[in-house]
Fold:
Amino acid sequence: MSKAFKPRRSILYVPADKPRALEKARGLDADGIIIDLEDAVAPDAKALARDAACAAIAGLGPREVIVRINALSSPWGRDDLAAVRCARPDAIALPKLRDAEDVIAARALTGDIPLWAMIETPRSVLNAAEIAGAGVAALVLGSNDLLKDMGARHMPGRANLHTAMALCVMAGRAAGIAVLDGVHNDLNDMTAFAAACQQARDFGFDGKTVIHPGQIAVCNAAFTPSPEEIAAARRVVEAFAKSPQAGVIALDGRMVERLDLKIAERTLSRAP
Structure:
C-alpha cells in the first residue's frame, strides 16, 4: 500500500475476555483489531477483560489496535477509559454516542489518543456530521444496535440501512476521516458476505468491521483495487501527465475529466 494511505479494509472485533482469540489475532491479516470491552463481554467479566485488553495491546502491532470501551454512562466506562489511556492503543472506540457533546466529554478524559465514533443509534445517525466534525479519527457503523433501536429487522440487501450508510459516508467525507461499515452476522453464507462487502465499497466505505477470521480475506479483497482498476487508473494519470492543462481528455472511448484524475489517484494510493 502507499505510505500515504493507511488501509482499513478489515477491522476485526476480538472479545477482550477471550485469551485464545487475542493470541490468534496476532497472526491474522486484518488491517486492524478492535479489542472489545463492550457488547462481547458479560457484565461479571468486565474488570478482568479490561486488564486483558491493556496487556494485549502491545503485542498486536504493527497493525492498528483499537479498544472499544463501554459507554461512559455505564458502570464500567470511566474505569475502562482510565486503564486504556495508560495502555496507549492506537485509538479508543466510543460506543452509544448521541452527539458531539459526548465526543467532547470523552476527549477531555483521553488526552491525545485518537477516538473512533460508533454510529449505532438513531440519534447518532442524525448527528453523524457533527460527531465527525468533533475531532474523531473514524466513524464506525454499528448496524446491529441501530436496527435494534429502530425496531427493524435484518433485510437482505440492507435496504433499511441505506440512509444510515449514506449519511455515515457523507459525514466522514465532509470531515476527511475514515468510515467503516458494520458487521455481517451470517458466518456460513460467504456469498452474501462478499456481496455486503462489495455494497459497502460501492457506498464509499473505506472498509468493514468483521467478527470472524474467516471473513478477513474476502473483506480485504473487496476493498483492494483489482488489477483492472489499477491499470485503468494508471492510464488516466498518464493521460493527464501528457496534457497537464487539459480539463477533459478522450481516453479508452470515453471522456475523462479532472475529477476522474482524482479518483484514479485515490485508486492508486490504495493499490497493493
Summary: The chain has a mean pLDDT of 94. The domain at 10-222 is CATH 3.20.20.60 (TIM Barrel). The beta strands are 10-15, 32-36, 64-68, 91-94, 115-119, 138-141, 178-181, 207-210, 248-251, 254-257. The chain is about 45% helix and 15% strand.
